[in-house]
Amino acid sequence: MNWLIITIVAYLLLALEIILDKFLLSSKRVSHPSIYAFYSGTLGLFAVVIGLLFGGFHLISLGRVVFSLISGMIFIYGMLSLFFAIRRGEASRVLPVVGAVIPIVTFFLAVIFLHERLGALGIFGIGTLILGGLLISFELDKLEQRIFFKGFRASLLAGFFLALSATMIKSLYINDNFLNVFAWTRAGAFLGTLSFFLIPTWRRAILGSLFKFKKPHKDNQKSGISFVLAKIMGGSGSFLKEFATSLPLASVTIVSALVSVEYVFIFILSILFSAWVPEVMREKKDLRTILQKIFAIIIIAIGILLVSHTKR
């Protein structure tokens, strides 16, 4: 199950990106969601360079070009919605909602448009992963608060866009090589970021952040380094996740549902980093929370075991 190992490594790198992102919360250069999404989409252009260097990039029909670019644009709009959701709400509430919406929407899209059939074992495994992801992410003492938190609608929108993009990109992998699809779709993501300049406030925020990179102050040099490292981790994780999705035996629904593994890594890394930088990394360590997390990890492990034996 090489695709499973690659997916788990990808989510480890994405978890490291989230941990590094916590150090950027006080940085003005990445204070607006459009800035974060802009750099995420722009750095994706390296995929085109990789495709050219390794000979995977080639011309395709006009229809496939349009389809590839649109799928990339939808992806970056999904990331933009995610950043808006996190800005408006709490990450501990946003991520579980997005993580649950993506595999659910992807499942129905994949069944309808990709004719994906996972069987009872695969569906149960996906449900187990979603349950484990919700349990490890949600703070039970906050469940009594209102369900429709600030950023809830943006979370739903992010989940839908990311699921739609993942399904569209998986359909491209069926008839083309990984590097070419990855390059064309990331080019689409970059085109999506250019549309941000149509909104004056976003344009000023992005251009202002570029100016700060040219003339960084000593007080934000560390945040700049953290940002670059975070994007390297995130870019590498996204690359591996896309590569796993492109493999013939991989289900786009299962790869999406395995985001629960990312939450496990985030929990473990948060515990480790909380001892090093407690003012930045705060993780509850009371008995109730620890037992909740352990139980969730067991559920996620069962889910991984189930999907690893799913035949397509």
Q: What attributes does this structure have?
A:
mainly alpha, 312 residues, single chain, 13 helices
Task: Offer a quick outline of the entry.
With 312 residues, the chain is an all-alpha fold.
Helix content: over 70%
Which regions have little confidence, pLDDT < 50, spanning 5+ residues? 25-30
The number of distinct β-strands equals 0
Major sheet characteristics: none
How does the overall form come out from the CA principal axes? globular
Textual characterization of the structure:
This protein has 312 residues and is mostly helical. It has one domain. It has helices spanning 2-21, 33-43, 46-53, 62-88, 91-113, 119-137, 152-173, 178-194, 200-214, 221-246, 252-257, 259-276, 287-308. The longest helix is centred in the N-terminal third of the chain and has 27 residues, at 62-88. The protein is globular. The chain starts with a helix and ends with a helix.
Topology record:
Layout: H1 2-21, H2 33-43, H3 46-53, H4 62-88, H5 91-113, H6 119-137, H7 152-173, H8 178-194, H9 200-214, H10 221-246, H11 252-257, H12 259-276, H13 287-308
